[in-house]
Amino acid sequence: MELDDLDHRILQELRRDGRASVSAIAATTHISRANAYVRVNRLVESKVIQGFGARVDPVLSGQHSSAYVTLTLDQTAWQDTRERLSQIAEVEHIALVGGDFDAILLVRARNNGDLRRVVLEELQAIPGVRSTKTALIFEDFDAI
């Protein structure tokens, strides 16, 4: 599906406010409500929009320690490793990447002790994980 400038403006508005009504999207993008409805529906049906959710403040929700954890993997075990990673509640995001490491995770935990447990006892216990490096996050903010 080819997206035009209007589709991108609609997506930007929904990134800014996922609860925006079709009327609000129409007003901010300067199109009719009917056109906004059709376009949003098309973006959902084509899976460009894969769902709607809430942005949660990690600290206010009790996750006081966050880190990006890079993994060097046994790449022949990627499917099994990905499945195990997705079962760890503290792992918020997983990305397979190219470069000096194979994957990067966003991990959010209650505190540094909990973060330590996730990295040393859960991540490093996965057979396909060869090594990890952890970068603590001091502050989060949205770019949008």
TrEMBL record:
Domain of life: Bacteria
InterPro entries linked: AsnC-type_HTH_dom, Dimeric_a/b-barrel, Tscrpt_reg_AsnC-like, Tscrpt_reg_AsnC/Lrp_C, WH-like_DNA-bd_sf, WH_DNA-bd_sf
PROSITE patterns: HTH_ASNC_2
Domain HTH asnC-type: 3-64
Keyword Zinc: no
Keyword vocabulary terms for this entry: DNA-binding, Transcription, Transcription regulation
One Pfam family from the record: AsnC_trans_reg
Keyword DNA-binding in annotation: yes
PANTHER family for this protein: LEUCINE-RESPONSIVE REGULATORY PROTEIN, TRANSCRIPTIONAL REGULATOR AZLB
Protein name: Lrp/AsnC family transcriptional regulator
Organism: Leifsonia stereocauli
